Amino acid sequence: MTPNAFHGARFLLAALGAGLAAPALAQETTLRVADSFPSGHYVYTAATQPFMDRVSELSGGRLGFEYYPAQQLGKAKEMLELINGQVADVAYVAPSYISDKLPLAAVGELPLGYSDPCVGTRAFWAVSRPGAALHNAELKQLGIRILFATMLPPNQLVTADPIEGLDDIAGTKIRTSGGTKDQFVNELGAAPIHTTATELYEAFSRGTIDGLLIPLTSLPPYDLHTIAKNATYDQNLGGFTITYAMTEARWQDLSAQERGWLEQAGSEITEQACATIAANTAGVIAELEQAGVSQLALSQDDRARIDAISDRIARDWAQQQDGRGLAGSKVLEAFKDAMQ
């Protein structure tokens, strides 16, 4: 496979000595980074690019990257395979897309009552660190290490046709990113449909799907706001976890200094990215309103129904994982503790 590489910028270290600039240090290690996001996607501008920039800055240009966006190396569901097969060194790994391999990582996507994505991001980051509950129960066994992560703003219900309440969802086809979002849609009497983000516009515009469970910030990058007619603006219908990971074997191949640069940049960008994405939500809502997407104002009965479904989903999820011999309740409690 010879991809058409999109090379990231190279950063030079400027050091002053005796009033003169010292020679720049040569790049010693290059990591291939793969994801499925189109060029200019807000996840890239808020997280991926800042991470690469920060590592280059910390390393003085000695640790650099080759970036392959827009599924150049593989599809969204294949990213874990890319790092396991050494096609990429770092890849965007979404637990929702490979819930069979990362069932416990879905804890970050449960509708747990927070509206600030940074609350979920910090909790997920805490439980996924080496030695923490999620890492010990799942990530360690898979041999992967998360370099940085962010939670998207909570999912909202978005429909192609105007609706007045949740009863109007019954019998429709709603796209979800999988996992517990399927249960949410089922409990509303609708059918969950799975498509990748790159297939959304065609499916939504053709009526293959009637609605979406999706963060509002994900609508403009795929022009979905030009089709939508209604959306909730203030619900938490589950989240979506963004992680960029590498294999533990590749991690151990790096020098201690290189691992230190990646760790520092990962911690900083995890905190920074969720704040950037959260701040963008207000602007996105204004853009949706301008495009004619009306806010769906849910009744108190509908809100109570959502709360009851959310509680049931979290409880059922933990019990299902426990029943499979996995540490569902332990990971859920650790996540809830980290939310405090």
Short structural summary:
With 340 residues, the protein is of the alpha/beta class. Helices cover 41% and strands 17% of the residues.
Our count of helices gives 10
Q: What is the end-to-end distance?
A: 46 Å
How helical, in percent, are the residues? 40-55%
Shape: globular
Secondary structure layout plus pairing:
Layout: E1 6-7, E2 16-17, E3 20-21, E4 29-34, H1 42-59, E5 63-68, H2 79-84, E6 90-93, H3 117-128, H4 133-142, E7 144-151, E8 156-159, E9 173-176, H5 180-187, E10 191-194, H6 200-206, E11 211-214, E12 230-231, E13 241-247, H7 248-253, H8 256-290, E14 294-295, H9 300-323, H10 328-339
Parallel strand pairs: 4-5, 4-6, 9-10, 9-11, 12-14
Antiparallel strand pairs: 1-5, 2-3, 6-13, 7-13, 8-11, 8-12
Helix pairs in contact: 1-8, 3-8, 3-10, 5-9, 9-10
Give an account of the 3D structure.
The chain has 340 residues and is α/β, with parallel strands linked by helices. It has a 6-stranded mixed beta sheet with strand order 1-5-4-6-13-7, sandwiched between helices. Strands 10-9-11-8-12-14 form a 6-stranded mixed beta sheet, covered by helices on one side. Helix 3 (117-128) runs antiparallel to helix 8 (256-290), helix 3 (117-128) crosses helix 10 (328-339) and helix 9 (300-323) crosses helix 10 (328-339). It is built from 10 helices and 14 strands. Strand 2 and strand 3 form a beta hairpin. The protein has helices at 42-59, 79-84, 117-128, 133-142, 180-187, 200-206, 248-253, 256-290, 300-323, 328-339, and strands spanning 6-7, 16-17, 20-21, 29-34, 63-68, 90-93, 144-151, 156-159, 173-176, 191-194, 211-214, 230-231, 241-247, 294-295. The protein is globular and about 60 Å long. The model is unreliable at 1-24 (pLDDT under 50).
